Every structure is written in C-alpha cells, then in structure tokens.
Amino acid sequence: MLLDRRDIMRNLAFCGVSAWLSRSHWAAASDVKRFGLIAFSTNGLTVSEYKLSQTMLADAGQLSGYERLDPIRVADIPAPIRTPLVPGADETTVASTADIIASRVDVLLARGISRSDIIVLVSSGLDAFAGQLVAKLGDMLRLRTGVDLHLLSAREQGRLQFDWVVPPRLRGQVFQLEIGGGNSRGGFFDHPGRAGRYFDVSVPFGTKTLAAAVKARWPDVRTFDFPARAAEYYADAVFTSLASRPQEIAATLKMPDVVLTGNIVRAAAVILYPHEIVANRRWIDFSPDAFARMRSFVEAGTPYGIVPDDLTQTQRASLLKIRSTIRSIFNPHQIAAGAALADGLSRQLMFASRRKIRYPIGASNGWTSQYLLENFKKGRRDRTG
Predict the structure, then answer these.
(1) DSSP at 237
(2) pLDDT tens readout for residues 92-117
(3) 375 vs 50: CA distance, rounded Å
(4) Helix extents (H) in 111-123
(5) Cα 322 → chain centroid
(6) How far apart are CA 55 and CA 41, in angstroms?
(7) First vs last C-alpha separation in the chain
(8) Model pLDDT, residue 79
(9) Co-location of 276 and 372 in the same domain
(10) In which domain, by residue range, is 120 found?
(11) Which terminus of the chain is more solvent-facing, meaning fewer CB atoms within 10 Å of its CB: N or C?
C-alpha cells in the first residue's frame, strides 16, 4: 500500500528509516539489489528492506539523503521492539536478544534476501549503554546466524547522520547534533563540498543514560523535580566534559546554523510545536529556549505536552498517535533528562548566537540509511567514517 509522503515523514523518526525509496527512480533502475538492514540502538530494534541501484544513485548530485529519497513503502517488516539490553541485564537476556535478532534474520531470508546482504548495525549509544552485553551478543549472533554485528563509533554515526540531513553544498555552514539515547554526537565540515574535513563533537550521555545516572545518584527523585536534578548532573558531568575541550566548542561556533536530530528533539517538537507537527511541515525552526520550555512541561506535570483545543478531529487523532509513540520510547523521567541535556547543550554550545536552529521531521536515525547508501555505492559494506 502506498503511503502519503507527509504521513511517512511525520512518523519516520520513531520507527527508524524503514524501507523507503524514491518512486521516481524505480522506472530507470535496471540493476536493483535488495538488502536487509537490522538496526539496534537504545530506542529499540528495527528491521528494514531496501532496494537500491547504481542507476538510482547516479543523480545524487548535491542533495542529502533526506532530500533525495521520495519515499514509498517497499515491504511490511516486523514492528520495532524496545531494546532488552539494559545495564544489569544478564546472559539470559543477551541470549534471548540473539534469538530475537536471529528470528528477524530468518524473516529477511524468507523474503529472498541473501545472508550476505543482511547487515546488523549497532549504534554507538547502545554500546555506551550496555557495551559488555553488546560484545557478548555479537559472539552469540555470529554463531547462530553467520551474520556479524557492525558497531559504529560516535564519530562514524555522527558523520553519517550529518550527511543524511545536510547536503554537501551546505557544508561549512552547519553544525549538526544528534541527541541520542545512549550518547550525543555531532559535528561539522570545515569547507563546502566534498573536499571538506569532518570534525566531530560528542559527549558520553544521551537521554536514557543521563536519566539512569540521575536515578542512581538520587534514587527517590520524583518526576516534578527530575529536571532540576538532571540539570545538576549535567553541570557536574556533561558540562565539565565539554568545558575541557574549549577548542571544539569554539570551532562549532563558526557554523551559523544548527540542525538537531534525535527522538528527544522529535518529542520536543511534538510538545512545543504541535500545530507545526499536524501541519506536516518538513522542517521546524526551534527557538534557543525551546528545551528550557520543554522542562517546564515536566515540572507542571504534563511531560508529554498538551493537545491544543483548536485542532480538528483529524489533527487531534494524528497528534495523539504520535504522542503515544513518544510514550513508548520515553518515560517521564527520560523526557525530563532529555530536556535538561538538550537545554544544557544548547546553552553551552551557544545556540542563541546562531542564525537558525532547525529540526528535519523524519530525519532522526537516518545514519542507518546513509550507511547502507554509501556502502552500496562503494560496492562494499565495510565501516565508514
């Protein structure tokens, strides 16, 4: 079934980039190859089928992946699931996770995708969140399925996400930051075009790792004061980590524009800009104090925002559906931690001095698609960066 582009872009951020490719390219593509992609991050596990061709990618030009792909659904794949790998999990959990991934591999094999064309990507954030478990999972999965895990570094993942949302023509103007679940990573190119060098910036905290750290320090913390505790923890850990690298901060300030991605950014858009969300905008402009305002919703007891009274019945249903997805990813404590983390980063990286702060709806987790696009185009599926 074909889906309207607006519906797709509105929901992509939460389900992963799930097998969407350009309608206009299919007629010209005579060398189509099918791939299966299993992506595993702190937000869960997603399974996708892609159809790619060198012909389809030949006219990429100066467009980003986000700009280039005019999506249609290629296949129905099992729905995303939450990650079972959390700190404190035992080997039984690792084994059951290997069983889940192996069952997804079987689904892709049954669809006619060869084993050598099935890729399992693990985010740097999940490695930071549950690193030892990830290593054990890789060994188990290799024995069970013959498929290797491809673990990305924060630098690799940040660069892939950058090239998914920022076209080469805008290199040298944009600092891109992904606020993930296990860590936060981003960067910029020093010059426009393909000749520029990529410089990365990362911190070892994301929405879920910060929430877990706050709970560990203050076990009895309540939701209404979670934002203050998270901000306190940010000052002790994240701020000092970044402050020890003043040259990195100074370098990002040369970029006039900021592009934000990540599911907590999507949540902020739904909470703060519900009218823009239901209007099916492709881009939303954030104010510098957006995440401070997001914190106030948590403190007021409405961590998922409110539904405006002036929405139509259809718009209301759409917004509630997206809010339901947010709830499935983040509990109120994680919303609070994400707001405090994003607010702290926006202050420390001086977002108020930038020309624009923008969020591309549906572009979060595009690093998975960018990985596949690049390695297919090169004719191999090795690590990138």
Answers:
(1) I
(2) 888 888 898 999 999 999 999 999 89
(3) 13
(4) none
(5) 16
(6) 31
(7) 36
(8) 62
(9) no
(10) 5-154+366-378
(11) N
Question: Which residue in the block uniquely carries the two structure tokens 């739904």?
Answer: 270
Beta-carbon contacts of residue 277 (< 8 Å; ≥ 6 apart): 10, 269, 270, 284, 318, 319, 322, 361
Q: Distances in Å between the alpha carbon of 157 and those of 141, 192, 350?
A: 22, 20, 23
Number of CB atoms found within 10 A of residue 116's CB: 10
Same domain? 226 vs 326: yes
Question: Is position 302 within any domain?
Answer: yes
How far are the Cα atoms of 25, 29, 70, 375 from residue 59, in angstroms, in the given order? 10, 12, 14, 17
Q: Are 338 and 330 in contact (CB under 8 A)?
A: yes
145 and 246 in a common domain: no
Compute CA distances 15 → 10, 76, 108, 332, whole Å. 10, 12, 18, 20
What 183-187 contacts at long range (C-beta under 8 Å, 24+ apart), as own/partner pairs, is 183/124, 183/125, 183/128, 183/154, 183/209, 184/262, 184/341, 184/345, 185/124, 185/154, 185/155, 185/157, 185/158, 185/161, 186/158, 186/161, 186/162, 187/155, 187/158, 187/159, 187/162
Query: Model pTM?
Result: 0.82
Which pLDDT tens digit goes with each residue over 28-69? 445 677 888 898 887 788 888 887 776 666 555 567 777 766
